[in-house]
Specification:
The chain is built from nine helices and ten strands. It starts with a helix and ends with a strand. By secondary structure, it is α+β, with helices and mostly antiparallel strands. α4 crosses α6 and α5 runs antiparallel to α9. Helix content is 38%, strand content 26%.
Length: 256
């Protein structure tokens, strides 16, 4: 936690005399890691002009709680990197956050590209459940991976949505927003994923599947299916490294 934020904070702290940075993250351990990063930076006399505000909550809880700094009512920048999948109502939530921008402010949303939407079963009680809806055929590599996950292991709080699908939904929901889209190819090295005892490999699997401790917590049949898919889709290099390729979709929205 904080790795995506670090370059943003570095840039802001250099350009502005004072920065108020609000972090919303439901995982307490991730929040603690971010706070540790802040402490490390402060010990090096960096980020001294940045005031941090941490909320160990989901974005829904944060928006509904009213637990905000009374001196901060609107934001100049709001950024979300690979997190919209966890929003209960992705489009509505993004629209709410967009309304929280100052005029001239920017909202950045980064998601994996593709045209697909796979929803979890919100009425089920078990951790292991099938997806209830697949609105579009998943064609990208990551979309196909989400599809396989959704058939067996979709978390009811998750929405596996392709970035291109989100762009179309935002255009329909926020027609007056100034929305631009940048596509960036991305290659994730997954060589270590094929080593069952590799700590780094298991972390990468968790990241790709959005499931904590995926190799040990998912049913054996799901693990086997996902690993077979990664092996088939992986791009084997001459040096033996294997890469899983996809595109990231960067959605930039300005409020005018």
């Amino acid at each position: 936690m904080g790795l995506f934020d670090k370059p943003v904070i570095d840039e802001l702290s250099l350009k502005f005399p004072k920065v108020h940075y609000v972090v919303v993250e439901p995982d307490i351990e991730d929040v603690q890691r971010f706070q540790d990063l802040v402490d490390s930076k402060h010990s090096q006399r960096e980020w001294d002009n940045v005031v941090f505000e941490f909320h160990a909550k989901t974005i829904k809880e944060y928006l509904e709680s009213g637990d905000k700094d009374e001196n901060v009512t609107l934001f100049h920048i709001i950024h979300m990197v690979q997190v919209v999948y966890y929003f209960d109502e992705p489009v509505t939530t993004i629209a709410t956050l967009f309304d929280m921008l100052e005029y001239g402010g920017m909202l950045l949303n980064v998601m994996v590209g593709g045209m697909y939407t796979i929803h979890g079963n919100r009425n089920a009680t078990s951790e292991l459940r099938p997806a209830t809806t697949q609105l579009q055929t998943a064609t990208s590599s990551y979309g196909q991976l989400f599809d396989k996950m959704g058939k067996h292991f979709t978390d009811p709080k998750m929405n596996f949505i392709g970035g291109d699908t989100m762009v179309e939904q935002l255009k329909n929901h926020l027609p007056t927003a100034n929305l631009s889209v940048i596509k960036k190819p991305k290659a994730c090295e997954i060589s270590e994923c094929f080593k069952p005892t590799s700590k780094d490999g298991n972390y990468i699997l968790d990241f790709l599947t959005h499931v904590a401790n995926f190799r040990t917590s998912a049913p054996r049949c799901v693990v086997d299916e996902v690993m077979s898919f990664l092996k088939d889709e992986g791009d084997l290099q001459r040096n033996g490294e294997v890469y899983f390729k996809t595109d990231d979709c960067h959605m930039i929205m300005y409020k005018h």
